[in-house]
Design goal:
The chain is an alpha/beta fold and 212 residues long. It contains eight helices and twelve strands. The protein has helices spanning 10-21, 33-43, 52-58, 71-74, 105-112, 127-131, 151-163, 177-192, and strands spanning 2-6, 25-29, 48-50, 61-64, 83-86, 91-94, 97-100, 117-120, 136-137, 140-141, 143-148, 167-170. The strands form three sheets. Strands 3-2-1-4-5-8-11-12 form an eight-stranded mixed sheet, sandwiched between helices.
Length: 212
């Protein structure tokens, strides 16, 4: 599949690297051509670089790997009809963690680019996790919740998730993406505070007293 990546930072490198290794064609687009070229070289496996417009034109699927504050600059009509993967987080520091500086970002992307199929994904873990080889922790596979309204786009991003050896979990429509955004702000705040956020929850089998 042809995947355009808008942005040339940590997430572009981590996700693009995995997809290129899985055989997908990658074009990294950034405002700084040297940074785009450097990231494409780091991704390897034939990844190319270009402008933001070039990445938008190239990708049947386009990863938005920029700060939320940059979305207004990169969302153009060229993206109409594309599957857009939104991995963004809009964090602002708050006492004891983070709050969202903007919410419902994925829904806003969908409202801005009419005809695009937005899927929120990959915003919960750090780029180092996506880039790493570990796909199971304490005997449990790492799950990637996906929120989006278009079944074909969800199926497509599920496949791209499996290509990274991760387990996709369709988690409802795009209106639920705002919960992924809030979850990320809350959990990352705990991690930054040195807390093991994973330990907040029991395993599934111990979640309820009685099985329904
Ligand atoms: N890093 C993580 O662990 C992580 C995890 C989950 C989600 N996220 C989210 O993923 C997104 C990307 O994060 P990242 O860590 O990859 O960021 P990053 O390493 O800082 O890279 C950001 C990229 O966005 C570009 N950019 C910034 N402002 C721009 C603008 N106004 N117009 C066009 N391009 C602009 C930068 O351009 P230059 O090439 O010119 O520098 C750079 O290529 C963010 O929304 C972040 O919250 C990150």
């Amino acid at each position: 599949m042809r995947i355009g990546i808008i942005g040339a930072g940590s997430m572009a490198r981590a996700l693009g690297g995995g997809w290129a290794a899985a055989g997908h064609e990658i074009l990294v687009g950034a405002r700084d051509s040297a940074h785009a070229a450097e990231t494409a070289a780091a991704i390897g496996n034939g990844a190319r670089s270009g402008t933001i417009t070039a990445a938008a034109e190239f990708g049947e699927t386009v990863l938005l790997a920029v700060p939320v504050s940059a979305l207004a600059d990169v969302l153009t009509e060229t993206l109409t009809g594309r599957t857009l993967i939104d991995c963004t987080n809009a964090f602002a520091p708050d006492s004891g963690g983070f709050i969202l500086s903007e919410d419902a970002v994925a829904e806003r992307i969908a409202a801005t680019v009419s005809g695009a199929h937005v899927v929120k994904a990959f915003n919960l873990c750090a780029a180092e996790v996506w880039e790493g080889a570990v796909r199971e922790f304490e005997g449990r596979p790492l799950l990637v919740p996906l929120c989006g309204d278009d079944p074909d786009a969800i199926a497509l991003v599920s496949g791209l998730t499996e290509d990274l050896k991760l387990r996709p979990v369709p988690a409802g429509g795009l209106r639920r993406a705002r919960y992924l955004e809030a979850t990320s702000a809350f959990v990352v705040g705990l991690w930054f505070g040195g807390q093991d956020a994973r330990a907040m929850f029991p395993p599934l089998e111990a979640t309820f007293a009685d099985a329904d």
